[in-house]
Amino acid sequence: MDAVDELLSIRAAELYYEENLTQEEIGRNLQITRWKVGRLLTQAKEEGFVRIEILHSRARRPQLERRLRDERGLADAVVVSRAGVRSEDELQQRVAQAAADHLAGLRPSPRVLGVSWGRTLSDIAHHLRDGWSQATDVVQINGGVSMSQRPGTAAATAVSIAQKGGGTAALLPSPAILEQRATKEAIEADRVVARVLDAARSASAYLFSAGAADHGSVHVDSGYLTTADIDRLVAAGAVGDVVGRYIDAGGRIVDADLDARTVGLSLDDLQRADIAIAAIAGAPKRAIASAVVASGLCTVLVTDESTAQHLLDG
Amino acid sequence: MDAVDELLSIRAAELYYEENLTQEEIGRNLQITRWKVGRLLTQAKEEGFVRIEILHSRARRPQLERRLRDERGLADAVVVSRAGVRSEDELQQRVAQAAADHLAGLRPSPRVLGVSWGRTLSDIAHHLRDGWSQATDVVQINGGVSMSQRPGTAAATAVSIAQKGGGTAALLPSPAILEQRATKEAIEADRVVARVLDAARSASAYLFSAGAADHGSVHVDSGYLTTADIDRLVAAGAVGDVVGRYIDAGGRIVDADLDARTVGLSLDDLQRADIAIAAIAGAPKRAIASAVVASGLCTVLVTDESTAQHLLDG
DNA sequence: GAGCACCATGCTCATGTGAGCAAGTTCTGT
DNA sequence: ACAGAACTTGCTCACATGAGCATGGTGCTC
Fold first, then answer.
1. What is each CA distance from B167 to B115, B135, B158, B273, in whole angstroms?
2. With an 8 Å Cβ cutoff, are B54 and A15 in contact?
């Protein structure tokens, strides 16, 4: 496109998009035929001079969703728009809302839903609307008797999702990570715990998030791991954790011993699931999101535009 | 619009603008009639959920231009878009380019063009293309034998505009502001100066900028005024200067004595002009831009989107 | 609970728009 | 300078779209 046409295409775009003139009127205005106007507008779009954004907290990016499905083999993807987002927290809320929307939109509603816990899951529970399902029971899929500042959030999350979905919650009464392998095996052998784990393995759908392998991790907060543990895991290739299990970029367990002391569903269980919804957003979680998708740990990814872009670029 | 329709309108907008589906296809997709889709799209636009921006250094805002003409009585207005602008300097360059474009687009080209000088005028001269006019002579309209760090820019500006327009430049060989009234009258009585001033008064068009009344003023830089002078002028109501003459928000001369020591066209001369193009942009110049427009000192205003908005709000 | 006003819906029809084609124009290589 | 290629232009025609209207449903008033 030469310089004259470039300028003309800008004038045409202004008159078309801002002044709402018809292409015929624009032609009269700029002394060109209406066909030329149409072509200039096409060019303006192609050259990227025209940017159209959907500004809404529930706006999504269907293009990226389609590419994630097609190029990354996901059964489904939900990518929320970043347009108009002012803070990182606002973005997290958008993603949580989108995950809640997706969950509520599942047909048929899952009879039993396995959930993890954490900040993201708590947000999702909050955004779910009452009556999102007629009868969905909820079961925790990883341990987490909380030692953190906000005790009981793990339980509150599961209970809230169940209550709003007309079902009951089965909590996993166990720490996330135990100090001794033997203790972990003993606790899993406990009748109550075993029953919950069985229920978790037979859930019709899963909903979970993932954590980055950094010092801000909820496992450090909760006292299950020290910052030194995290450093050691990172040195061994860890990019983050899924249901408490730390994996590397290829989705492999980084520390077999640590893994053997972690209570909850195994990664295999997740990989076999028909519906496994992962809600992972934000720049710090790019690496773990990528690992989760690459190793087939989820069938559905709910994320933000930037993270999606990153997954597709890499 | 109820909540359901709001969400639907967002989905429809995504499919329409991002996926390029027809309204019929969207209807099939969302299980609604194509007429409903059309209405949802209209609503999405009305509610401001759809933002369309023209991203280009020469993009303008015709809506604001029209409002400036209609509501502020300007013969014409050029408002450059702020979309995609990263720095204040980039915006100034856009405005300078737009002023150059407007000048070059005048039909017939002015036979004699009166110009002021300063940073903005220098930029405009730079952006003018060679041969912008067949034969336009340029005459300086205010004094400015420069004492600043970049001597000769005032002269270079006028000469450059004239050369590129196939004409000659008449420089005003006088300081902008003199210390004694008598000296100013003596210099204006000088044959050469008087001839240039006569030519300036008979110019067929004028092009000038304006300065804010602050310590960064080019008059302080050049040594014609001290920061104390500026403070005194501001205290007396000055919002800025046009061709060296300080005015208040109502366009009135703030200091009659200072004005009597200032060499160049009077404000009356400008107000009587058929074509007086003012290029004024940037937040610090909002007040002076407003004063210039309100008091009819220009027939054409070239400015940026934010300044235009401010003029229309006030 | 009857009557009325208002609004959403589905439709017709005129207008707006883009794909595709043929003719004209401008480049390019020899 | 000329032939051919590549591109641009004006056009036809089919499709997409918005304005305007009749209908039916909803909610409000008394």
1. 14, 5, 11, 21
2. no
Q: CA(B287)–C1'(D7) in Å?
A: 51
Handedness of CA B105, B111, B116, B122 (dihedral sign): positive
Mean pLDDT calculated for residue range A105-112: 95
CA distance B291 to B185: 28
CA nearest B53 in A: which residue?
Answer: A51
Shortest CA gap A147–chain B (Å): 39
Report which of A200, A76, A65, A99 is spatially closest to residue A141, judged by C-alpha positions.
Answer: A200
> What integer pLDDT is reported at residue A71 of this predicted model?
96
Element holding B186 (H helix, E strand): helix B181-189
Strand partners, B240: B212, B247
* Distance measured from the CA of protein residue B4 to the C1' of nucleotide C30, in angstroms: 68
Whole-number Å distance between alpha carbons of A303 and A162: 23
Is the CB of B55 less than 8 angstroms away from the CB of A50? yes
- B225: number of Cβ within 10 Å: 23
Backbone angles phi, psi at B142, to 5 degrees: -145, 155
Segment A125-138 mean pLDDT: 95
User: CB A10 to CB B59 under 8 A?
Assistant: yes
According to the model, what pLDDT value does residue B155 have? Answer: 85
Measured at the alpha carbon of residue A159, what is the angle toward residues A153 and A160, in degrees to the nearest 5?
Answer: 85
Q: What is the pLDDT of residue A152?
A: 67
Phi-psi region of B216 (alpha: psi -120 to 50; beta: other; left: phi over 0): alpha
pLDDT of A151 strictly over 60: no
Strand nucleotide closest to residue B20 (CA to C1'): D16
Angstrom distance (rounded) from CA B106 to CA B136: 11
Q: Cβ-count burial of A7 within 10 angstroms (0-12 exposed, 13-18 middle, 19+ buried)?
A: middle
Digit-coded pLDDT (tens) for A210-224: 999 999 998 898 889
On average, the pLDDT of chain A sits at 94
Which mean pLDDT values do the consecutive 10-residue runs of chain B (314 residues) have?
89 96 95 95 95 96 96 97 96 98 96 95 96 95 68 84 96 92 94 95 97 92 91 96 96 96 96 97 97 98 98 91
Question: Radius of gyration of chain B from Cα atoms?
Answer: 24
- CB proximity list for A149: less than 8 A, separation 6 or greater: A221
Mean pLDDT computed over A92-119: 96
Tokens linked to A107:
């047909």
> B150 - beta bridge partners?
none
Lookup: tokens for B157 = 């500006």
What are the pLDDT digits (tens) for A74-85? 999 999 999 999
From residue B181, how far is each of A108, B145, B188, B244 by CA, in Å? 91, 18, 11, 15
